[in-house]
Structures are given as C-alpha cells and as structure tokens.
Amino acid sequence: MPLKPLGVISSSNQSGLILILTALSLSFIVVSFVIRVYIRVPTRLWKWDDNSFTAATVLAFVQSSLVFYEVHIGLGDRSIVERNDEAGNQIKKYYFANDFLYLAVLFCSKGAVGCLFLRLTRQLGHLRAIWIILGTCGAWFVLSILLISIGSSWTKAYHVPVIDMATKQFGRWLVVGITDALTEAIFVLMSVFLVHGLRMNMVQKGTVVSAFAVRLLTIPALAMRLYYLDPSTIPDNRSLALSLVVVCTQIQVGYGIMAASVTVLKPFMVVYEKPAGSTDYMSGGHTKQYGKHTMPSEHTGTSFQLKSMSGRPTDAADARAAGSTDPTQQYSGYNATATAHGHKKDDDSINSQDSRRMIIERKTDWSVRYEEAESQKSNASVVAGSV
Description:
The chain is mainly α and 387 residues long. The protein folds into two domains: 15-272, Rhopdopsin 7-helix transmembrane proteins (Up-down Bundle), CATH 1.20.1070; 295-386, no CATH class. It is 60% helix and 6% strand. The protein contains 14 helices and four strands. It has helices at residues 15-40, 48-73, 78-81, 86-120, 124-149, 154-157, 164-195, 202-213, 218-229, 238-260, 266-272, 319-322, 344-350, 372-386, and strands spanning 295-300, 303-307, 334-340, 364-370. The strands form two sheets. Strands 1-2 form a two-stranded antiparallel ribbon. It has a two-stranded antiparallel sheet with strand order 3-4. Helix 5 runs antiparallel to helix 7 (164-195). It is elongated, with a radius of gyration of 31 Å. The N and C termini lie far apart (120 Å).
C-alpha cells in the first residue's frame, strides 16, 4: 500500500505548496539566527536589537510549527477546509490564532531594526526620531491586534464561502497592511537621516541605506497577501485563495526576519567597524597621552594610524624642577595626542558607548610634540648673550 504523501499541489489541494514555502522560510530564519549568534556572541556585542531578533525568531518558529500542524490536519485541502466538522473547525481556529503570531513576529523584527538604530548613534535628534519610530511600531501592533480581534472570531476570519463579514475583515487587514508598509518605508528614511551630513563617500552611505532598504522587499509579499485576502479574488474557490494567503504570510515572515539580520553581515559592518591599528574609542572629544610612543605616520580612510617613536628619544633639561634655566640638565619631554571629532553633532553620533563598532567614524588624530628642552635652551642662550 503506497504511503500518503506529505503534501499535494493541485487546484483543490495546496498543502504541498504550503509545506515547501513554510520549510524554506523557516530555514532562512534559522540560518539568519545562527549567523547573528556567531557574530555577536564571541565579540560580546549582544544588545537589545539582538534580544528583539531572538524573540522574533522564537515566535516565527512557533508560528511555522503551527502551520505544519495545520497542514497535517488538513490545511490546504479544500475537501476538509470547507467542511463544518471538527477537523475543519480546528483548522479555522488555528488559522485565526496564527494571525496574532504573524503580527507579533513582524513587530519584533521591526523592534530589532529600531534598536539597531539606537546602538549606532547618540545624537539627540537621531534618538528622538528613533523613539518616535519605535512608538509608531508599538501603536501599529496594538491597533492591528484590536482591529482583527474586536467583533471577530475564528468563524468569521476563515469563512468559506464568502459572507459580508469577510469583506469587513478584509478592510481591517487592508488598514493593517498599509500601515505595515509605511513603517518599513520609515526605517529607510531613518537610515538616510542617519548618514545625512556625515563625511562619508556615496558608496559608504549607499551601503548603509541599502542594508535597511532590503526590508522594502517584504512589501510585495504583503501586497500579494492582501490580494488573496480580498473576497473578490477567486470567489469560487476561497479555500485556494486562503491557502495562498498562508503561503504569502510565510514568505513575508521569513524574509522580514532575514532582512533584519542583514546589518550584521560583513558588507555592512566594514563601514562602521573599528579600523585596525586605530586607538581606542573615547567618550570625550579630546584626550592626552604622555610618553615617547606616538607620532603620525600613516592613515587609513578617515583615521590615522599611530607609529612608535621608540627610535627617537627626547632629551632636555628639567629647568623648572631644578629652579634653574641651565640647558645641560637632562629630563624627558612629553608628547600630547589630541583627538578632534568635528562639531558636536557628529561627536554624539560617533562616540556611542553601546558598541565597539560604530556605524560611522569621523576622527582626526593630532600628534603634538612640545619641545620644551629646545625652548628652554634657546632662552638660556639669549640670556647668556645679553650678559
């Protein structure tokens, strides 16, 4: 006796398509999470954006597992879904519950992007804009939950054939979808605002913006989901249309989480990671380092790499310590290294304490050698000549 296939793809049964796309989406999510853990944990850079991403991953895993179970009991099979028996009603209940998980996953993935912005800048104007965006995402999530739950139930959310309530339910999902797309566009605008006015070449700015702009590709999947939710789409086979809604949902969830992890990949990180050989990042605008150890030698990008001066000792007389201007007395001079960060606007953006890897670095290292011995010697010679 041949074994029953796990899924079938036909005009009356889309269970196979649902299984394939859900498994593919889940694999993308798992790979993205593993990459993020591999990059963040060894360097101890795990922050709130990573926590939010982890929450999105866990919720997506639960949501995908629920879809697998729904397919097991008959999701996608028109002959089962359109029945009003226990199996058909159970599928509709799980479908309704999955809507809430879908919204929760999207909210957490948006939170991961918003929290990433917080760790990339300390400028007050940026922080205000980011918190407004995060608040907007939170309001979107609460509004979406209320829209799909108030005056609705599992019998109305997945009703075959179409009834008037299905049209009203689609109107609610249309509002949810449009506001969802707007929040994704706001993230891209925020990335443009973040790099605007900073001293970076266009390639670097484009890299930063494109890393966030990849999330816009979730909008086509969202549009297709809304298209199949429309009761006027395939009205004679709503089971097929709603099965395709599940497929589009899984694509949007998987890609949305994967796009939230693009910003930890090397093409984006090389723009803001700490350059090799550079001095430690400092919270203040100016510091001094004393001793015979630094001088400007070469620079990489916008930061200067400092070389050793061990082969050039500094000898002078400590006239002030001895109470005399005799230039024959020996003492070691000192070097002062000052770091200038431009004006205050960029200083806040660069010197974030949340990470050793900044998104944008604009730093100039100045090495100033104070030749006090030479000055003292010159003054002593002038005095001796006058005498």
